[in-house]
Amino acid sequence: MPRKETITREKLLSSAFELVREKGAGELSARHLATQAGCSTQPIFRIYRNMDELEKDLFDRLVSFFNEFYKNYDGKSDVPFVNLGMSYISFARQYKNFFMVLFVDNSDSGKSMYDLVNGGKDNFVINEIRKIEGVTPDAAGEIFSKMWIFIHGIACMVIRNDFDLSDEETAEMLSDMFRRIHDS
Fold it and tell me: Does residue 55 belong to any structural domain of this protein?
């Protein structure tokens, strides 16, 4: 009777997810993954052709994780981009290593930051743009661009521990920035 496989693709992917959550993407190697999964490196390369293939699957899992995080974020503002911004900033605060993979080190995924933030078919950004009343599509795009620079800047400050405002102060800052950009 053949031996039952105990190390599966899902087990490796879950182990990689936890490894990156705890230690960062720089620690994701076959050796470290094998230790995390409780196996040798052999099952990794039986299941995956190479580490790049595993990293692609992990990236896709992180994108889904971010999308679920955003969907479950309890947004309280009616001002466009405040809830999206607060969710993004909260994600950076709670999942620094995942944030780094998705939004800072994302060099060869083939997805732009806009694609990632928009949530694919969920259209997170498009839904925020639809909340803006009385502007042309070009003006709405410009508002988003300026807001996104501001939001991403705050999130990057958060992961560097250079931002210590409360959630309430941050939401107010985002609301104020939206009004300034919108009214200019």
Answer: no
Q: Which residue range is the domain that position 24 belongs to? A: 1-48
For 127-140, how does the pLDDT look when each residue is reduced to its tens digit (9 = 90+)?
A: 999 999 888 989 99
Q: Is the pTM of this model over 0.85?
A: yes
Check pLDDT > 90 for residue 71: yes
User: Is the same domain home to 28 and 84?
Assistant: no
- The sign of the torsion formed by the CA atoms of 100, 101, 102, 104 equals positive
* pLDDT surpassing 60 at residue 3: no
Q: Is residue 174 within 8 Å of residue 86, measured between CB atoms?
A: yes
Question: Total domain count for the chain?
Answer: 2
121 with 146, same domain? yes
Q: Which two tokens stand for residue 184?
A: 């200019």
Give me the torsion for CA of 107, 109, 113, 119, rounded to 10°.
-160
